[in-house]
Queue: 2 jobs
Job 1
Amino acid sequence: MNHEAATATAHRPSVLRFALHGLEMVIAMVVGMALLGPLWSWLWPGLPDDVTAQALVMATNMSIGMAVWMRIRGHGLASIAEMSAAMYLSFLVLLPFTWAGLMSPMAFMTAGHVLMVPAMLIAMLRRRREYGW
């Protein structure tokens, strides 16, 4: 394969590249939770008793892990801010239902994580070229 063909192939938009980038961010989020979770537990021993604080701390841990990885991958601050907002938005939308007693803490945490996926997808599709599609 000549140099021009190799360059064109390397820069061709790809659903696979887009999906892999999303997977990388999910892995970075899990790493953020795994590394920062124990720190929060040590700093804030009563954290497990407050589902609101738990969700916001978890969103922060995921955002930090993901933001570090996105910077390593060369993303700008606007993209990082949008993706971080997706971490919080999924929980913030559901908090009033939890506070009103209409949703259990477990259902809240589960639904928050499930809603995070489409929120991230929307952020990625908004800047699809940046994410390889």
Job 2
Amino acid sequence: MNDTRDRLRIAVQKSGRLSEASLALLRDAGLAFRTSRDRLFLYGENMPVDVLLVRDDDIPGLLVEGSCELGIVGRNVLDEQRLAGADAPTAATIQPLGFGACRLALAVPDGGAIATIADLDGSRIATSYPALLAGWLRAQGLRADIVVLTGSVEIAPRLGKADAICDLVSSGATLAANQLHELATILHSEAVLARSPHALGAVPTQLIERLCARIAGALSGAGARLLMLQAPRSALAAITQLLPGRERPSVVGLDGYPDDIAVQALCRTTPDWQQLEELKRLGARSVMVLNVERMLA
């Protein structure tokens, strides 16, 4: 690891379910990029932060070897490589990112011989996550042959390669299309921001702190709304009770109208029409609900 590096490198999935959301988050954090000719490298134009577009399975390794300081990767990939690496250094999770939600689940053929978790004992289970599956089997006191596949895991039972599968599930549509149903959940996963286990120099450390603050601000604005209104001062207590706020509302007086106030409130969710109508009934006027793109604490 070169501690004198003056630019930060982030590994991001080049294609797949996390790719677009990861890049969108970095752009929401204020980063602008120029794409390399091979479209595998994004050069940061307004901050010394570059992005490497790689296979998701390669991200933990790039972090461990020090080629990148940060990575956006599924928790399932990070945990699989951590368990498979035994006592080797592993990447550390900084924070969950709230997208790419899925679960690593065991599934079995519809109408088959396996109806309960206990029925898995002595079976063959196909998966791309052998370390996670092996750990779960040990915890359950079960023995099974793990058949490692790198793709098309869901068709293994129809090909006679396995009695069950352990694979990522989002909606469950792929399982249903292959006449499979879930039996148990091994891991709930989502995208996480991870960092290299190596000690970093002052410049990359400062850049990480700055970028993490921006990402937190971008994430905290997701789904939030700013409610603005004017109302009689006497109605403040009742209005406050109606607000789905994160914090106490800001209240200021209106020049020339001693009995009136202006209220601003940060809401966790969009106030519905019933809430808005109730605010109106309490005397609120000039009511506006605005999207919040990003926030800094």
